[in-house]
Amino acid sequence: MKMKNSKSGFTLIEMITVLAIIILIASLVMAAGQAARRKAYEAKAKAAIASLEVALGMYQVDVGSYPADNGAPYTSNSTLVTQLDSGGGTPPTGWSGPYMQFDSKDLSGSNFIDPWSHNYYYKNPGLNHGTGMNHTSYVDIYSAGQNGSYQSSGAGQPPQGDDIANW
């Protein structure tokens, strides 16, 4: 009497095929997740810049001017944070803040940071709102984006690359 070979199971080719399909699906899901994370970070940076603009507007109405920047164009924003949150050591006349309170996870030292852990930059008066009589009434606020490098295309021009700005 002959015995039948009744082994059942998957062949090596079937297992490799299934594994390849699983890897392909996983890579598509990860790519979609990274794109969603990038968009969420960009939305958070845009919202933070808009919040800073509102807080600066309230500060300007009360005090009569915008807070000073840290000196050189596009350096840090620690002076801005102090002026909006506590008014500094001696708040300026008319100050009735805080105009914006900063979460400790959004600060690095005394600087307000973007989702990529780079400083938001603040310049007063701004350089990117055109020219003329009202030019000094605007401020520049921007995030250098994920790459952390500001790619200026010149005053009055839109931000380049992954930069996010209020102009």
Structure at a glance:
The chain is mainly alpha-helical and 167 residues long.
Kindly describe this structure:
The protein is mainly alpha-helical and 167 residues long. It has a single domain, classed as Glycoprotein, Type 4 Pilin, CATH 3.30.700. The chain is built from 2 helices and 5 strands, in the order H-H-E-E-E-E-E. It has helices spanning 12-63, 78-85; strands at residues 107-108, 111-112, 120-123, 140-143, 164-165. The protein has a 3-stranded antiparallel beta sheet, covered by helices on one side. Strands 1-2 form a two-stranded antiparallel sheet. The longest helix is centred in the N-terminal third of the chain and has 52 residues, at 12-63. It is rod-shaped, with a radius of gyration of 26 Å.
Please give the CATH architecture.
Answer: 2-Layer Sandwich
Specify the overall morphology: rod-shaped
Q: What is the highest CATH level, the class?
A: Alpha Beta
Structural class designation? mainly alpha
Radius of gyration: 26 Å
Classify the beta-strand content into a percent band: 5-15%
Uncertain ranges? none
State the helical fraction. Answer: 25-40%
* Count of all domains: 1
For the terminal residues, how far apart are their CA atoms?
Answer: 88 Å
- Taken in chain order, the helices and strands follow as HHEEEEE
Largest sheet: 3 strands, antiparallel
pLDDT average, as an integer? 81
Count of helical stretches: 2
The CATH topology is given as: Glycoprotein, Type 4 Pilin
Total strands: the figure is 5
Strand order in the sheet with the most strands: 3-4-5
CATH superfamily: Glycoprotein, Type 4 Pilin
